[in-house]
Structures are given as C-alpha cells and as structure tokens.
Amino acid sequence: MGVRVNMVSPDAVFSHGEKRSGLWAQVGPDRMKARGLDEKGLEEYYRQRNLLKARVTAEHVARAVIFFVTHQTPTTGATIPVDGGLPDATPR
C-alpha cells in the first residue's frame, strides 16, 4: 500500500519569526514559574540544555517533515529528533 509511518520529534520551538508559539503561550508560564525564569530566560534554558546550544525553529522542524514527505529515502518507522541533541534522550 506504500504507507509510511515516521515521526519528527522537536524540542522547545518557541516561535517562527515574530509569530509566537500557541503551545508555549499555554505551558510556558507554568514552566517559567517552576524554573524561576522569565520568558527570555525560559527560551535560553531550553537552548542551553541541548548539546549544540541551538535555538530550534519552526523552519528546522519543517525541513525534517519535508525530508519524510518527499520520499527522499525508502524510510519508515523512523524518528528524526530536531532538538539540538538532548543528552537524556535515547538512543543517540
């Protein structure tokens, strides 16, 4: 049937340009409070916790999705982490 099942696993995508993430508008205040941070501090916290110290953007996530939907490889059952490399994530 040609069905493929793949996933993209991003971490902490706060915005795309000037457009803020609706998810972070909902969960951000509780996470900021729990970590004693302001909005800018929360974004920096997530950037600093990944191995590449990268700010993950919506464009990064979109590129991973495009890789799968354009069938560039005969891949199914895969997950692309778009997270800058989280030390606690498995497997690496």
Question: What key attributes describe this structure?
Answer:
92 residues, alpha+beta, two-stranded parallel ribbon, two-stranded antiparallel sheet, 3 helices, 39% helix
Could you explain the architecture of this structure?
It is a single chain. This protein is α+β, with helices and mostly antiparallel strands and 92 residues long. It has one domain (12-76). It is 39% helix and 13% strand. A hairpin with a 2-residue loop joins β2 and β3. The model has no long low-confidence stretch (mean pLDDT 89).
Element layout with pairings:
Elements: E1 7-10, E2 15-16, E3 19-20, H1 22-35, H2 39-48, H3 58-69, E4 79-82
Parallel strand pairs: 1-4
Antiparallel strand pairs: 2-3
Number of discrete domains: 1
Helix percentage range? 25-40%
| Shape summary | elongated
Largest sheet: 2 strands, parallel
Number of helices: 3
Low-confidence stretches: none
Distance between the termini: 31 Å
**Could you state the order of secondary-structure elements as H and E?**
EEEHHHE
What percent strand?
5-15%
